[in-house]
């Protein structure tokens, strides 16, 4: 939690300086593209603030209302962020389209717009590197996603730098407005992507079939454990919960079946990092239920893609 708090505070300070500089200079020089870049940086401030509060909530221990803990607070916070980012992009889109339709006279951006954008690229590169390393060190999906978003911001700022430079060279201020329009669409796209990514976790989805393959392989390494099925893996922030059914010889005692389940659990934990809990249901060999609506069997994960599985 200390690492995430420190990283969030650094992000708030760094993005605050960059956003304030770009928005101020953008308005003073008449560059809506730079203003849009500043709005994008301002959304990163909100990211850091949300991350700060989410870290405090997600580290609370489990209670009666939340027996699985509070770690999905970070996922919910990230989804909230997606709405904020998309809204900021939509506001810029509406403003830019209105200016293009009205045909109002606009000034050619000043040289200060180029300078502040170049400084922003350097600042964003430093923040992206810092957050990426910290996120991988503590295995925080939100920090890693934030670092990736900042790398996208660098490309965005580079486009703004090139666009403003071209506007100055050709003295065509309409190019700046067109660039601002493209930036607004980019911001909206980022918000939608974050929304979709967090939906997978909140719906208890798992888009990495390799984890299921590792689970089944772990079961097969245990003598006496057969026909693993109804496998379900859910992610709770940085942790994974694994559930599955395993069949054993019906002549085994409860103690023997329990011993096999313990061996399967150990194998799964060795094969997959960050496993919070493993729940194994032992069944007699050859007993199949007529309806097993939940979970996956080995045949499901052998398919190449989710689309192929859906069609089978």
From TrEMBL:
Looking at the record, the residues that make up the Cation efflux protein cytoplasmic domain are 208-284
Report the sequence similarity comment from the record: Belongs to the cation diffusion facilitator (CDF) transporter (TC 2.A.4) family.
Kindly state which keywords UniProt assigns to this record, in alphabetical order.
Membrane, Transmembrane, Transmembrane helix, Transport
Q: Look up the domain of life of the source.
A: Bacteria
Species in which this protein is naturally found: Spirochaeta lutea
Single GO term (MF): monoatomic cation transmembrane transporter activity
Q: How does it sit in the membrane?
A: Multi-pass membrane protein
Gene3D superfamilies associated with the record: Cation efflux protein transmembrane domain (1.20.1510.10), Cation efflux protein, cytoplasmic domain (3.30.70.1350)
Query: Which Pfam families does the entry mention?
Result: Cation_efflux, ZT_dimer
| Boundaries of every Cation efflux protein transmembrane domain copy | 9-203
GO CC: one term?
membrane
**PANTHER family xrefs:** MANGANESE EFFLUX SYSTEM PROTEIN MNES (PTHR43840:SF50), MITOCHONDRIAL METAL TRANSPORTER 1-RELATED (PTHR43840)
- Protein name (record): Cation transporter
